[in-house]
Amino acid sequence: MSNYPSPSEVAAKHGTPYPPQEQALGLTPSVMPDVPICAVFLFLFVLAGAGHMTLFRLNLAKGKKFIISGMMFGFCFTRIMANALRIAWSCYPDSVKLGIAAMVFVYAGIILLFIANLFFTQRIVRSQHPHFGWTKPFSIALPVLLVIIIGSILALIVGVILSFYTLNQKTLTRIRDIQLYGETLYAVVAFLPIPIVITSALARRHPSIRNNEAIDKFGSGTMRAKIALVLVSATFLCLGASWRAATLWLPAEDSTNPVHPWYFHKEFFYVFDFTIEICVILSWLALRIDQRFFIPNGAQGPFSYAGGFTFAGEPGNEKIALGTRDSMRHLTGSQASGFGNGSRVSWGGSRNSMARESRVSWGGISRDDVTMGIGEDGYQTLPYPGFEQDEIQGATAADVGVEGAEAEMGWDPKSGRWALRPLSHLPTRPLSTQSGV
User: Fold this and answer.
1) Largest CB tally within 10 Å, which of 20, 27, 212, 314?
2) 3-state secondary structure the chain
3) What is the pTM of this model?
């Protein structure tokens, strides 16, 4: 016989919305210590949100849409609301409505971090394995998973709200089953990037892949740094999600029981929820995920991440988004397609001209490291000698050591074809240092 009142009886006397009948991670907040702790987290999430929104707007002004920065601002907003509501709940611990609102915002936000890390994972796989990464099964896997995640979080939020408006034990049991499913799904989704990225990196070591398929480079920094960032983030996010799921799978404790299991204590709530999240979100801000994981707008198909250039006439990096008609025959066939149409073909210049002019401008030689030897993944060999920025002023491709480079590319939007002309026919001029050269 328990020496504390039945939670259902207490709830019935209170009326709707009913107070919770089971203990949960974090328990009911109080002025001390919850208010100062939540105030600190509130300040940190405001800073993180402002930082990610600033980067989003700066990139947008440059024509770069890195939507994930906007997602991170949205995540920070949910955490700002969660901490603000938890502060209010601390001051009015008997307000069930404040408790419901605080719990909803805690549930709603975390999936944005999981989704962002899945996008990073997808980009790594498509970079290391361009042809496999763009196959239909792999391409539809993430959208299908997103539908499952969004549907699950909606069911979870509805279930949590409904639990405060019913005393029916069968309904409450089903709601608990939904919570168990939702938290377990969170843990699985948070864990997924780890096996996927590790498998992709190990498969990259196989000689048949290493020697025959190039990497579709994207963003700044090395592939090793991108992989490390995803793995570390996934490890911490999975730790937090697993703790929440584990505490829910343990036997339920009545909310009126004055004895609280150690794993429900507030320090574990703040460590495995807000502390892990703020560390991840601030590290992503400091390490500039907007630069490391940026891909060209509209990138679609193998080798579209690199920006659509063919380096010194080298096949394999055609602008896939332009369609199948931009085939190899336009790159290696007759150069006549580029002559006699001088008024329509634009040579050299910047990719930025695509947004300003009616004629698309491609051309020049790549400044990417194309040194013969070991690539950024540690295994991919690259075909041409490299050169530094200060070596290319006034030089042609041959002058900087790109052996066999004979043509500069120009895109003719009217004919819908690539056009080539020999570099030897070009006047000696400083090469543009603008984007896209």
Assistant:
1) 20
2) CCCCCCHHHHHHHHCCCCCCCECCCCCCCCHHHHHHHHHHHHHHHHHHHHHHHHHHHHHHHCCCCCHHHHHHHHHHHHHHHHHHHHHHHHHCCCCHHHHHHHHHHHHHHCHHHHHHHHHHHHHHHHHHCHHHHCCHHHHHHHHHHHHHHHHHHHHHHHHHHHCCCCCCHHHHHHHHHHHHHHHHHHHHHHHCHHHHHHHHHHHHCCHHHHCCCCCCCCCCCCHHHHHHHHHHHHHHHHHHHHHHHHHHHCCCCECCCCCCCHHHCHHHHHHHHHHHHHHHHHHHHHCCHHHHCCCCCCCCCCCCCCCCCCHHHCCCCCCHHHCCCCCHHHHHCCHHHHCCCCCCCEECCCHHHHHCCCCCCECCCCCCCCCEEECCCCCCEECCCCCCHHHCCCCCCCCCCCCCCCEEEEEECCCCEEEEEEHHHCCCCCCCCCCCC
3) 0.72
pLDDT digits (tens, 9 = 90+) for 238-296: 999 999 999 999 988 888 888 899 999 999 999 999 999 999 999 999 999 999 999 88
Give the CA distances from residue 333 to residues 327, 328, 417, 418, 419, in Å, rounded to whole numbers and listed in that order.
Answer: 10, 8, 11, 10, 9
Residue 23: what residue type? Q
Bridge partners of 347, per DSSP, are 362, 410
Round to whole Å and give the CA distance between 397 and 437.
12
For the segment 172-221, what is each residue's pLDDT rounded down to a tens digit?
999 999 999 999 999 999 999 999 999 999 999 888 887 777 888 888 88
Residue 410 pLDDT class (50, 70, 90 cuts): low
In contact, 227 and 215? CB cutoff 8 Å: no
Q: Give the number of other CB atoms < 10 A from CB of residue 227.
A: 20
Give the CA dihedral 155, 158, 161, 165, nearest 10 degrees.
-110
